[in-house]
Amino acid sequence: MATSGTTALLGVAACSSGETNGDDSGAGSGPATGEIEFWAWAAGLDTIVDEFNASQSDITVNYNVIPSGADAYKKIESAVKSGSGPDLAQVEAQQIPTFAVSGGVLMDVATGAEQYKQNYSPATWNSAGFQGQQYGIPNDQGPLVAYVNDDLLTAAGAEFADTWEEYRDLADKVRTDTDAYLGTLVTAGAFMAAVSWQNNAHWFAIEDDSWVVSLNGEATREALNFWIGMANDDLVTVNPGGNAGFWQTLDASEVVSYTTGIWGYRGMKGNLERTSGAWRAMPVPQWEGIEPMNSLWGGSNWAVMEGSKNAAAALKFADWLAAEPTAMNLQYENSGYYPASDAEQVDGYAESDEFFGGQKVASVFAEAADLVGDDWQWGPSMTTVYTLLEDSIGDAIKTGDCTEMLNSVQEEVVGRLRDSGLEVREG
Q1: 77 and 205, same domain (yes or no)
Q2: Which InterPro entries would you find in this protein's record (predicted)?
Q3: Whole-number pLDDT of residue 20
Q4: 376 contacts 142 by C-beta, under 8 angstroms
Q5: Domain count, the chain
Q6: Which of 35, 73, 158, 377 is 20 to 30 Å from the Cα of 97, by its Cα?
Q7: How many whole angstroms separate alpha carbon 390 and alpha carbon 403?
């Protein structure tokens, strides 16, 4: 049964759903055999599923490709609640609390999953769970890094920045000396979350059985106003990212660096031709006055769905997919990927990479991942948060300050969460 504290955190919907808050914790501990349905969108998974099915005879995986993002979650939730959902599905880290709060979507497989826990870091393992419940296996993560056009910096007689204060000075130098821009303010909500988190912001927390919402905190204001200020001073471009125009700015040497999750290399390799070989992977700059730290932009889990009759088989396949070297190397070849498990099992990171001028990116990526802490809490409404930020960042850029935007988003999110039956207070 749910405790009063769990009721306050999960709300009326989840706690009225016997499935999510029932005694599911023993699920996944039975025989790992049978047939499972698997839904995901990551590139190349069909080949990897075929490899798994050919490698053993105990489990048969049927793979179904679904769209990514909000459309995926609507499809998953509708199917699971109607009794026609998969056993296992791809769910991003920020969506886990939302499904936990809504109830009836995720199965708590804490007991069955425990045997696989040692394969993953605390931060990535926690991303597949919520409040003591474990819903599956973490697959990948997106620690922030900076991809830098080293040829352009060398021509400008400059080196990349170690701190964000130095980044601002370097942006001014690059703009003055080369007419290029140092970077891009990406107007995606996930970018805003990542740069805030890296400045030790905490948008959501759980204290005394209540959600604490701090979307307008000082660290967030500092991080976003840093980028907004550079945009207003014409030192960085402004773009949603990931579109043809964005890639063109990088390949035409109009923009010198790209701050993104590690996965960004895949889009670069697929879209940049003229500047291939000029790029280097580098640590993201640090904020002065706080301990060195990093954040995540992106990360997916293989989550077991409520109603699965083969949770143990789903978990065994999920761990194979996330931690078996064969599967990991295939994921690396097929998509923008950095594992939630041991990255040393992926051969490509340790090899000379022609796109990066022969650089071996393993150490940069490992350092980026090592600096990610495990104290960031995703909220129960991240799709709403991202949409509100993305809809209002343009006005904040025009005014040169994000304070009004953040106060408005804070008020709207708190109101919606309270209306949904959650206990909420403002941080």
Answers
A1: no
A2: Bact_solute-bd_prot1, SBP
A3: 39
A4: no
A5: 2
A6: 35
A7: 15
